[in-house]
Amino acid sequence: MKNEAAQPKNSSGVTAKVVSGSDSHIAQQGSVYRSGVSAESVGSTMLWLGRISLPAGRRTSAHRHEGHETALLMTAGQEIEIWSGAKLERCETVRPGDYLFIPAGVPHVAVNRSLEDAEFLGARNDPAANESVILMPELDGIVP
């Protein structure tokens, strides 16, 4: 007989879940997403965690996420540029091992000018696999 004390559960009987990950999909802004933890996969109500990639020689469309923050860890690739600000006036270089934080509502564009795909581990406080994205085509021509 199992020791019930060794098998803690919360009051609703919900327990931890292991997720193998999902198939990839191209997000509205152009990056490739592979969800791990999401509302769809485990019933998450506050968190998304997964892998994001930006293929070599590609960029995202100008966009913002009105209702959520995004945190990224670059895990592979050479480097990318992240352009951000109201008029995409700030450019920073992100390299493997760097963390990147994008506040809610901040317009941004990611550019991968290298010959290697850029890979990230990403988390956000929007649990949906297809996050809320507001495209900003009026800013697309600013980033060279």
Automatic annotation (TrEMBL):
<dbReference type="InterPro" id="IPR017102">
    <property type="entry name" value="UCP037087"/>
</dbReference>
<dbReference type="Pfam" id="PF07883">
    <property type="entry name" value="Cupin_2"/>
</dbReference>
<protein>
    <submittedName>
        <fullName>Hypothetical conserved protein</fullName>
    </submittedName>
</protein>
<dbReference type="InterPro" id="IPR014710">
    <property type="entry name" value="RmlC-like_jellyroll"/>
</dbReference>
<feature type="region of interest" description="Disordered">
    <location>
        <begin position="1"/>
        <end position="21"/>
    </location>
</feature>
<feature type="domain" description="Cupin type-2">
    <location>
        <begin position="52"/>
        <end position="121"/>
    </location>
</feature>
<dbReference type="InterPro" id="IPR011051">
    <property type="entry name" value="RmlC_Cupin_sf"/>
</dbReference>
<dbReference type="InterPro" id="IPR013096">
    <property type="entry name" value="Cupin_2"/>
</dbReference>
